[in-house]
Amino acid sequence: MEKSSLITLALSKGRIFEDTVPLLQAAGIEVPESPENSRKLILPTSDPNLRLLVVRASDVPTYVQYGAADIGIAGKDILYEHTKEHPGGLYQPIDLDIAKCRLAVAVRQDFDYEAAVKQGARLRVATKYVNVTREHFARKGVYVDIIKLYGSMELAPLVGLADAIVDIVSTGGTLRANGLVPVEDVAPISSRLIVNQASLKTRAKYLQPLIDAFAAASQGK
Ligand code: PRP
Questions:
Q1: Whose CA is nearest to atom 1 of ligand 1?
Q2: What is the pLDDT of residues 171-186, one digit of tens each?
Q3: What one-character DSSP code corresponds to residue 68?
Q4: How far apart are CA 69 and CA 200, in angstroms?
Q5: pLDDT tens-digit readout, 55-65
Q6: Whole-prediction pTM value?
Q7: Domain ranges for the chain
Q8: Architecture of the structural domain at 3-99+190-219
Q9: pLDDT tens per residue across span 114-156
Q10: E strands, 46-197, where?
Q11: What number does CATH give the domain 101-189?
């Protein structure tokens, strides 16, 4: 096969992968293997012109920005942080309306968040989403010390590392299991299609039909 006809789509396993498969199916593309039953990081599809790269959610924009993948699917949470640090370079044409969840502030059940905020206390907030968290509290006029973590944020309030966390809440199960409660929404989250700008110019013949199929499938959901 001519190399230039091969389109590479980067996405992460879990919710985004699960919600992307039906969109691909709506475009007539089957994905025979999934990251749940395969350790492969490059997955073929029934379309010989399309392959999938399975990467960490926060790495998806990087693969697309550098052109190692032509397109990708990434949550607005990840995109917001990425574009703050690497402005420009990514075309984000479609909100796919998948992997919907929200970014929220959560605290221990016994922590009086309202009172802490009213008293003008300086809050310690643990999060992976440093930029969005800083802007959220700046808008509220609340002083915060932000502690950057890379995962398992729910632990931080339980062991005295932070007063609050800002994290993704989907079912709320993870917060409940750890005795935390959501106290404030920061932003609604869904995933967007992202496209490498050079690929869009040089490989439009293969890429544009796929972008159109994603647009149609996400509208028809
Ligand atoms: C997110 C988040 C929570 C969990 C919330 O993690 O960090 O741990 O999902 O979901 P719930 O409200 O349905 O319990 P994710 O599974 O995306 O993995 P991550 O830790 O790699 O971010």
A1: 168
A2: 999 999 999 999 999 9
A3: S
A4: 12
A5: 999 999 999 99
A6: 0.92
A7: 3-99+190-219, 101-189
A8: 3-Layer(aba) Sandwich (3.40)
A9: 999 988 779 999 999 999 999 999 999 999 999 999 999 999 9
A10: 50-54, 71-75, 90-95, 101-108, 123-127, 144-148, 164-169, 180-189, 191-196
A11: 3.40.190.10
Ligand 1 neighbour 141 (Cβ under 6 A)? no
Atom 21 of ligand 1, nearest CA residue: 151
| Phi, psi dihedral angles at 165 (to 5 degrees) | -125, 155
Which amino acid is it at 214? F
Residue 171 in contact with ligand 1 by CB distance below 6 A: yes
- Whole-Å CA distances, 170 to 41, 59, 133, 153, 176: 26, 21, 18, 15, 12
Residue 208's Cα: distance from chain center in Å?
23
Which residues contact residue 164 at a Cβ distance below 8 angstroms, ignoring those fewer than 6 apart? 105, 106, 107, 111, 113, 123, 124, 125, 126, 157, 183
Contact 172 CB / ligand 1 (< 6 Å): yes
Give the single-character DSSP code of 193.
E
